[in-house]
């Protein structure tokens, strides 16, 4: 978690519970406006995906699940 996110969460804890709910709903709406179907990735996630794809892993479609463990 970034320092900014940690600081924001710390500040939210100072608010009364009703205002915490308001702030949570506001952030949720911001995220949904930015990515309504949760398909975007952050730069960090994109780097991790790229590293995984280039690591030599085998796609699930190429695995014969019937013969595993025999």
Layout of helices and strands:
Blueprint: H1 3-14, H2 17-34, H3 43-53
3D structure, described in words:
The protein is mainly alpha-helical and 70 residues long. 59% of the residues lie in helices and 0% in strands. It contains 3 helices and no strands. The protein has helices spanning 3-14, 17-34, 43-53. The longest helix has 18 residues, at 17-34. The termini are far apart. The mean pLDDT is 91.
Mean pLDDT: 91
- How far apart are the termini? 42 Å
Helix content: 55-70%
Number of strands: 0
Order of helices and strands: HHH
Question: Strand share of the residues?
Answer: under 5%
Shape label: elongated
The stretches of 5 or more residues where confidence is low (pLDDT under 50) are none
The largest β sheet comes out as: none
């Amino acid at each position: 978690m970034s320092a900014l996110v940690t600081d924001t969460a710390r500040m939210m804890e100072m608010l009364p519970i009703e205002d915490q709910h308001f702030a949570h709903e506001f952030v949720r709406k911001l995220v949904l406006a930015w990515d309504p179907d949760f398909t975007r990735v952050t730069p960090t996630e994109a780097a991790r995906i790229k590293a995984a794809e280039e690591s030599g892993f085998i796609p699930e479609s190429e695995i014969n699940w019937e013969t595993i463990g025999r």
